[in-house]
Amino acid sequence: MAWLVGDGFDFYAGANLTINPSIWQAVSQCTLSGSSPRFAGSIWLQLGNTSVTAGNASTIQFTNSQTIFVNCNIISGGNAHVNGGTTKTVGFTLRDTTANIQCGFYLRNGGDFVLTTGAIASGVLATSTVLMPLSGQWAHIQVKIFIHNTAGTVELRLNGSTTASWSATGLNTRNGSANFYANVVNVESNSAAGEGMDDFYVFNDQGAQPNTFQGDVHAVRQLPTSDVAISWARNTGPNNCLAVDDTQDDGDSTYVSTLTVNATDTYGMAPLSPTPNTIIAVCPRYEARMDDAGPHTMNAQLTSGGTTVNLPTMNVASTYAYVSAAYPQDPNTGLAWTPSAVNACLLGIKLLT
Max CA-CA distance within the chain? Predict the structure, then answer.
């Protein structure tokens, strides 16, 4: 396995990321912001609420991994950068379950980065030179950490660099447990005013790509634009695809529904724009709830060429929740995705019970 977990943050309308248990297991004091985004129209995770409380969010537990890559974009605005400042502003910890922190990685308000023994208030293991001297600006970071009690390493590549912007070796990056791995990433900040993250994903060095540095990656939304085969009923509009093409969750404003077991809707998608150089993964996502007593289960399908794969089954609840999955390779070929293959994909939803 290479891909572990990731989120582009663009679809949520509410602040609670736990509406997507495929990605997040615990969230505290986070908001979602469209102000000063990295790209026009995108949404990013602000690690803090409107009070003085800092925020944090823990991913689901993933495959035990000794070498972990964290690829994301960060912004620091709450602790204005000062010459020699040592206040940690935004970053993450690698954990063995949510309880045991192996090490942490943070930007400080002096413009340097540090590797730490634990969470944001913990001691410093290694310090970079000043690499990000200005606050209020987006920066892309790729961080590779090898977990070991004596031979741990950290390497940072900043803003798409193809070589190390900073690295350190001979570190104890295994502080929280006796295990030489982590399986949870917790993102956090030290201020509610402007610290945040976007286009966040995590992978290891095992299996097919992504399994090494990937460069600057941007999550792009593709929405349903055509009805291929429909059997669900829509509440409004001329096409089922237009009832489920929400750029952000709109609750019950537009939806499709059914009580017929095995009823399936299939949709075509808008083409990628612009055409990417490389596709790291395709991550279909759907959202559903039930408005009767149930119980109900459903799933979604991704079809590429002649191959259809099923996303995890949802036990549908009375409140909306997301299910998502990541496909780093085209299931039809077993190879990396091409833009034409992605553009030809179909998305489906099916009521199981």
Answer: 64
